[in-house]
Amino acid sequence: xxxxxxxxxxxxxxxxxxxxxxxxxxxxxxxxxLVVALAPGAAWEQESGRGFGGHELPRDISAWIAIDTDxxxxxxxxxxxxxxxxxxxxxxxxxxELRVPFDSITMVMGDxxxxxxxxxxxxxxxxxxxxxxxxxxxxxxxxxxxxKAAAQWNVRAAGLSAAxxxxxxxxxxxxxxxxEITRGEMLVKIVSGEQSLTPPAEWKIAGTPVHKADxxxxxxxxxQYPSDITRPGMQFGAVLRSDGFNAKLVSVDxxxxxxxxxxxxxxxxxxxxxxxxxxxxxxxxxxxxxxxxNVPPQQGNEGLFEYLKTxxxxxxQDRPQHASGSVAxxxxxxxxxxxxxxxxxxxxxxxxxxxxxxxxxxxxxxTVWTGTQRPFGVRDELMQAFGLPAxxxxxxxxxxxxxxxxxxxxxxxxxxxxxxxxxGSPVKVVWTREEEFTWAYLRPAGLIxxxxxxxxxxxxxxxxxxxxxSGPSAIETPYDVPNQVIQFHPSKSPLRQGSxxxxxxxxxxxxxxxxxxxxxxxxxxxxxxxxxxxxxxxRLRAVLQAAADKFGWSQSTSTPKRGFGIACGxxxxxxxxxxxxxxxxxxxxxxxxxxxxxxxxxxxxNPDGLRNQQTGAIIQAxxxxxxxxxLFGDGRIQNAHFAEYRVPRFRDTPKIEIVLIDRxxxxxxxAGEIGLIALAPAVGNALFAASGxxxxxxxxxxxxKVPGIPESPFRS
Amino acid sequence: xxxxxxxINGRSLQVNVPGEETxxxxxxxxxxxxxxxxxxGEGQCGACTVLLNGQATxxxxxxxxxxxxxxxxxxxxxxxNGKLTPVQEAFLEEGAFQCGYCTAGMIMAATSLLxxxxxxxxxxxxxxxNGNVCRCGxxxxxxxxxxxxxxxxxxxxxx
Lengths: 716, 159
Fold this sequence. Notes:
The structure holds 2 protein chains of 2 kinds.
Chain A: H1 23-30, E1 33-38, E2 47-49, E3 63-67, E4 73-77, H2 86-98, E5 105-109, H3 126-153, E6 160-163, E7 166-169, E8 175-177, H4 178-181, E9 186-191, H5 215-219, E10 235-239, E11 248-253, H6 255-258, E12 264-268, E13 271-276, H7 279-287, E14 290-294, H8 304-310, E15 322-324, H9 327-333, E16 336-344, E17 356-362, E18 365-370, H10 375-386, E19 393-396, H11 411-423, E20 427-430, H12 433-439, E21 446-454, E22 460-468, E23 483-489, H13 505-523, H14 527-533, H15 538-551, E24 562-571, E25 574-584, E26 590-600, H16 607-626, E27 632-633, E28 636-637, E29 655-661, H17 679-691, E30 697-698
Parallel strand pairs in A: 1-9, 4-5, 10-20, 16-30, 18-19, 22-23, 26-29
Antiparallel strand pairs in A: 1-3, 2-9, 3-4, 6-7, 7-8, 10-13, 11-14, 12-13, 15-23, 16-21, 17-18, 17-20, 21-22, 24-25, 25-26, 27-28
Helix pairs in contact in A: 2-3, 13-17, 16-17
Chain B: E1 2-8, E2 11-17, H1 23-30, E3 49-52, E4 55-58, H2 64-67, E5 71-73, H3 86-94, H4 103-116, H5 122-129, H6 139-154
Parallel strand pairs in B: 1-5
Antiparallel strand pairs in B: 1-2, 3-4, 3-5
């Protein structure tokens, strides 16, 4: 049994976090024990007994750790758990450095009244930034406890050791628990300097396959997701949606809803919603409204990529990310030249839990429970919408039904807060699946043009890569090419777009690694050998070799019915190579049968969580690679349901093998994203190896033709 | 509005609701049984799966009028006196979830599958579970968990 509970004391209206005014109040609220906070920018380091000696905490504190007199450890961080297992892996890092049992740690996450400000949980930043910060604080806390014990026993700290939440004499019999050391005092330490951290090679708790914190609550239905939160007197809200994007309301008749018993209509300009005592009545109320909208004609799938190429975002710099040598001269002298265009479609995150929020107003203070990767960003949105100071808005993010980059914003939180304010009672808003598909934001579509030149011996000499709209992530080539132009061109997007797990690394890597394969075939050289010939990055070489070895690349000979492909990539400090085996049946239906992914992201914090993430990333990537795409036109999403928007299922899942390379000598990189980036090109390259047909558009095998691009010969 | 007699997790109770309101809405929004999840409202994702007379059923497609009189079991009703079922134990053991939002539906679907097929093959598991979506892509571990649950049940419940 582990006690790593999310801190939800506030859900029942009691607990240490109620009505926090400022950080000093919070510190007082903690009572006796030891508090260690990290202020990377602070020029001073302070230790004091009792209270805080009149000093304010520095404003740039990123996290803190509190050890109470019973030895319980609370870790306060603005990071959130959305299924990536960070609650568990960060706790492992703290337990390791603090030398306490894993079960003694409670992670307090994503509650804006309880935790220090944090930009958000995205970009694979939690492990490489929050990880070392927490380790630093934990190491400082352990050191301070040793010094306190040394002082109490009148011995030298060097003669003491720390383990299992106790300080012991190395040569002697005395031992004392962490909780006892503080003797009822409140001790505060601000850490700004570097601490000596335990090397990963000596890790005993970090680096091990600890199971998900509070896993039992997930198999019993006990864990409360944002959409499960209930408050006393809570009502249910729903919002009237327009007929399309950029629509103007012409007229609305809300009489039908107003006549319904218990239903209250809320109207503020074009925002029209209802509040009702039960969810069914709220939906009924919206359905009973008669609204007329004027939806202007808008860009759809047809002609999308021409539109993106010719509609630059105004004010953006038109300048390459990277340029070296002369691509024009090198291309003129190259023997092998390949020039192609690649596309990726808009796709939806479709987290299984749609946007949801419960909002409650209490004496002018707004509290919102919602699923978001950026609780402080949502707090800002609410502060702005209602003209409130930070102290009057509290956002709590219960571990939610995932996000994949799709929950950076607070739409449902704003709606629930507006409705709750008007209704005078707490209100819950849960988006329907159709609302989530339509009114959230999407992974950007993009056009990528690549041209490359090589010598007959397989040496790359020129590489030019232009990405329109999808983004600059992993746009630079990891290969050694002397002459390069690499450029991202931001476009005006016809649809609302935003972050998506791995961002544009998936698109840029799809184009680059498909193109690498095309150049290899044009030269007549093995795709793996071609990559290795032009690659000096040792970490990427290592994963390529590891994946190829596990897959049996050298013995894999493609036939018209069975193709083998390889691809690799690096992004955000992680390195991945993927091999895929694809079967093509007589009806041109493709079946991805086997995937091997070799992965290296520095020292591994939790191999079990990492394998789970990596397997999931491959399966999620299969959706975008093979069939996921948004159909749209004239301001409407045309496939806003799971019946029309296909997502990967059990039946789509290949045999997956993960090779983890644990580099204990390197710092840990975030691992939530890069697992996606090499799958699509590996599959596309396998398709080419079997069929001689290169599909340059993702998805590569949709269930029906996607308007605006040539029809794929393949189905999946 | 109508008066409906329900049997949920061995408890009998009466609700007074519109007959076309779904079982999912009644469970979640009126009875506080939030372990059963909303994922799509169209029977496409399986997050709302409950047992109706032992059969895996989409609560989002079942009007309360059709659920009345049936023996309903939700995720909250599996644990008995602090003891998890083999399927729950197996999901824990295999770590067969990431965000966990699909897990209740997966466990109910697997429970129904195993009650009909005690020792399913991988193909039977895939076919039986294919209507349940895990957007985090935990499928291989879920398949392993169902196999483990089958073995555990054969050995008399838990290991």
